[in-house]
Amino acid sequence: MTGETAGGRADAAAGDASRGPQDRRDERDERDARNAQDWRGWRAAMAEALYGPGGFYRRPEGPAGHFRTSVHASPLFAWAVARLLCRVDEALDRPPRLDFVDMAAGRGELAAGVLAALPEPVAARTRVCAVEIADRPAGLDPRIEWLPEPPPGARGLLFANEWLDNVPLDVAEVDAAGAARLVLVAPDGTERLGPPVAGADAAWLARWWPLPAEEGRRAEIGHPRDTAWAGAVASLERGLAVAVDYAHTAHARPAYGTLTGFREGRETAPVPDGSCDLTAHVALDACALPGGRVLTQRDALRALGLTGARPPLALASTDPAAYVRALARAGEAAELTAAGGLGDFGWLLQPVGRGTAGLLDDLFTGLTAPAAPSVSADPADPAASSSLFVDVADDEEQ
């Protein structure tokens, strides 16, 4: 022990002796107040960790540096969204200005992909808006508007891919007495139970995610997402709003919730310090407004022409290069529609405005019908045939 350290300790001991009981009580109260501020509900913790100064979604690498969405899996996803936009355009009688609004745009990957995939006559009258809190990335197509909020009065397609799962929300857990209580979290991710769930939180749970009186059961309280989705839909004057996310519905809620973290491509414990993504699956049925419909991504993309079926073997003899390209596209389409993976994501489709009540029927007529045989379609041509690929008999694949 050095003389300096010993002297410092002696000074501290002398200071302690000079403080009276009231001083020590004041220090304890200040310390308790500081500790109490460290514990808060998950909704507040997520909001700061994801979107506050230095938050995860303000980091320069963007979401793609930590996880892979359908947008990053294949350009065929942007092709399918472009084709959906073209169908909405037809349903709206081809307005002079057609809007495509990309919610939670990341670094603009989907907005740029859709714009590139649109036929030129449609692209020429399409306003593409990327909605994102992060700064506009360098090199983004100058035709894409970069906005902090969805533009009011849009006519066309509002598309929110993996946005709602990052809308902050609180978590409830059942205690030993069978009561649902808010879960509080410290900056290091440590949790403890807080006050009983009450008010709007309790009403939402009772309606959409009732918890049994079984200790440890958990639920994410989703009404902030319902409100966020309703606000986004309200920005559309006429057209279609689509939310795509990993989701659950009332008949299959997870027993212990889904809150988790992602960092550098790996799932990790959820820690609200800005170092990782914080996400929870979405109760899409609760978000749906009157007239909305929930499909799986598999069904939605198949209706838009992506089946994942392999090209016919005969093409390998007549046009080997085309066969290889079609085979690669088939693999990408299969990933986007795979059971147990991206194909299980939910698509919430919400028609908006006058004369759109039958829009979903028009868009997804023949949802379960066989794909039309075509192998010549270009993924950048949304006006192409209803399928990129055709299936072949197993014995032909050898």
TrEMBL record:
Region called Disordered, residue ranges: 1-36, 371-398
GO BP: any one term: methylation
Keywords, sorted A to Z: Methyltransferase, Transferase
Molecular function as annotated in GO: protein-arginine omega-N symmetric methyltransferase activity
The keyword DNA-binding appears for this protein: no
Ranges of biased composition (kind: Basic and acidic residues): 21-36
Start-end of Low complexity biased regions: 7-20, 371-387
UniProt key word Lipoprotein: no
Gene3D superfamilies named in the record: 3.40.50.12710
InterPro entries listed in its UniProt record: NDUFAF7, NDUFAF7_sf, SAM-dependent_MTases_sf
Signal peptide: none
Domain of life: Bacteria
The protein, known as: SAM-dependent methyltransferase
